[in-house]
Amino acid sequence: MSKRAADRHDEMEHDAKAPDLGNGASRMRTDQVNDNMGDFEDAWEDDYESGEENQDGDGMEVDEEMDQEDDDEQQEEQEEPELRTYLPGQPLEEGETLEADQSVYVMLHNLDVRAPFLSFDVLQDNLGDERKNFPATAYVAAGTSIPGARDNEVLVMKMSQLHKTQQDDSEDEDDDPDALDEDPVLEYRSIPHNGCVNRLRVMPQQDQRHIAATWAETGKVHVFDLSPYMKSLDVPGTALPKSNKPFATINNHGRYEGYALDWSSLDAGRLLSGDNAGLIYNTTITPSGASTDSAPFRGHKSSVEDLQWSPSERNVFASCSADYTVKIWDTRNKNRSAVSVKASNSDINVITWNHKASYLLASGHDDGVFSVWDLRQFKSNAPTPVATFKWHNAPITSIEWHPTEESVLGVSGADDQVTLWDLSVEPDAEEEGRFTSEGVQVPPQLLFVHQGQSEIKEIHWHKQIPGCVLSTANTGFNIFKTISI
């Protein structure tokens, strides 16, 4: 599948409000992009229309006019269209727009950007784990994706003052009057990058340094140290490096670009990269540079779309490909995978390995299907997925297990949806055939549907803010937390 957007604009309109599933959708407003790198939108800003006040001294005429104004207001209220729940796939009538139901969001912020991010990753910070207080702060590394342009960049961003979503009946405002302030703050540092950033991944071991790898459309994999840029966002006056060049570059892929990239969570500095020629290279990053194995892993008959190191076994990783297969590899054998499974009749775009239940692997496919696999069954001749879902009606673009809840999964698709799932929900006889009034069948495992972005490319859970999801699309960047998780 094509991972880049066909059309790019320096300025674009951003519809970044997302209706929930089954909680009453209303109309969506549209905000205009600013000319700078990016700004948060004020999702609750009110628009006022000024009218002329009647200055006539005749009391009777004034009363009549006031009565007429009351009648007009009542008529406008009667003419106000009825708000109804919107479900994905339903056509919008002429004049209808979507607006988020704020009551189902704990937090929802939208960032407009001048150039879209094809890929990003969350940076670990020193603000603590399992934090639930607001306003929140998040650090993100992202790469711009302007095909063929030399002025692409890697951005290190700090998003602070991320306040809770305003609720009409909220009691939190009385307890904490600052909790619902509406002015998030964005700060960033920029690093020049030659070519579109196909994918960006941050090394999980971030205690000492923040190391990130980028897959460039030039066929090179670059490794950057983001630590000084991260520090400069917190400590004013921090000197930035005189050279913005990466401290290591992997050239083994030649002219073939790629998208597959993953760091080992067990061995710091071990990096896998897969290209469109079907080759996978293993690289070890050290403080002095990079050392890449001369021989690649061979076995896929088409492009390698995604890679995932095992969270429990140092020498094991998984790959997926446009050749419809998922393969499990032992790093000690480069010529043949240990297990190969035909997982779909279409390209397999993304995979995710469960870090809490390491026998579970999920895969997202080009036909909109995503499946969950029990790797213990891969020993059989023809393993089948333990669960398969066909909710998305376009290719799956990103998939990721929740970092602490082993049954919760986040999925995004080219149908402009981010969906959150709880696979521990067991369907019963009544729930299995549940249909809405519009005839749409809703799987009981589906917790939440977030919409409003166009051409969603990637999603990630924030590992230090429970339930917080970040998503990037052609129309901007969202960070949100729902009441469902």
From TrEMBL:
<feature type="region of interest" description="Disordered">
    <location>
        <begin position="162"/>
        <end position="183"/>
    </location>
</feature>
<keyword id="KW-0853">WD repeat</keyword>
<dbReference type="Pfam" id="PF12265">
    <property type="entry name" value="CAF1C_H4-bd"/>
</dbReference>
<feature type="compositionally biased region" description="Basic and acidic residues">
    <location>
        <begin position="1"/>
        <end position="18"/>
    </location>
</feature>
<dbReference type="InterPro" id="IPR036322">
    <property type="entry name" value="WD40_repeat_dom_sf"/>
</dbReference>
<keyword id="KW-0677">Repeat</keyword>
<dbReference type="GO" id="GO:0005730">
    <property type="term" value="C:nucleolus"/>
</dbReference>
<dbReference type="GO" id="GO:0042254">
    <property type="term" value="P:ribosome biogenesis"/>
</dbReference>
<dbReference type="InterPro" id="IPR015943">
    <property type="entry name" value="WD40/YVTN_repeat-like_dom_sf"/>
</dbReference>
<dbReference type="InterPro" id="IPR001680">
    <property type="entry name" value="WD40_rpt"/>
</dbReference>
<feature type="compositionally biased region" description="Acidic residues">
    <location>
        <begin position="38"/>
        <end position="80"/>
    </location>
</feature>
<feature type="repeat" description="WD">
    <location>
        <begin position="389"/>
        <end position="424"/>
    </location>
</feature>
<feature type="domain" description="Histone-binding protein RBBP4-like N-terminal">
    <location>
        <begin position="96"/>
        <end position="163"/>
    </location>
</feature>
<protein>
    <recommendedName>
        <fullName>Histone-binding protein RBBP4-like N-terminal domain-containing protein</fullName>
    </recommendedName>
</protein>
<dbReference type="InterPro" id="IPR051972">
    <property type="entry name" value="Glutamate-rich_WD_repeat"/>
</dbReference>
<feature type="compositionally biased region" description="Acidic residues">
    <location>
        <begin position="168"/>
        <end position="183"/>
    </location>
</feature>
<feature type="repeat" description="WD">
    <location>
        <begin position="341"/>
        <end position="376"/>
    </location>
</feature>
<feature type="repeat" description="WD">
    <location>
        <begin position="297"/>
        <end position="339"/>
    </location>
</feature>
<feature type="region of interest" description="Disordered">
    <location>
        <begin position="1"/>
        <end position="91"/>
    </location>
</feature>
<dbReference type="InterPro" id="IPR022052">
    <property type="entry name" value="Histone-bd_RBBP4-like_N"/>
</dbReference>
<dbReference type="Pfam" id="PF00400">
    <property type="entry name" value="WD40"/>
</dbReference>
